[in-house]
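Example S7 (structure tokens).
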């Protein structure tokens, strides 16, 4: 078993169109997303970067999820989130306020 690398709060884009936001860590075989929320509707006008930088917007829809374990091969890319903006999230998700 290799050591986990902590990537912090990220939007994780996975194979087959799945998109999650949460605290991401990886090892050689797995991607782990703690405090995960499935991004059902981005609610942005400027795409995923806007969501990462500004946090959830009024039209963003996030669905709470248990911790996600996905094969590292299914992880397409990560987008670093502005943790301060996500702390101020006003949506009804479990969010990332207690970072």
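Recovered sequence:
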């Amino acid at each position: 078993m290799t050591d986990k690398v902590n990537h912090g709060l990220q939007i994780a884009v996975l194979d087959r169109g799945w998109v999650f936001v949460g605290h991401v860590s990886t090892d050689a075989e797995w991607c782990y997303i703690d405090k995960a929320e499935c991004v059902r509707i981005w609610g942005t006008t400027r795409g995923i970067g806007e969501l990462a930088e500004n946090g959830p917007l009024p039209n963003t829809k996030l669905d709470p999820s248990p911790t996600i374990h996905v094969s590292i091969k299914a992880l397409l890319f990560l987008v670093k989130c502005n943790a301060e903006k996500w702390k101020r999230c006003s949506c009804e998700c479990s969010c990332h306020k207690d970072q």
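Notes on this example. The mean pLDDT is 90.
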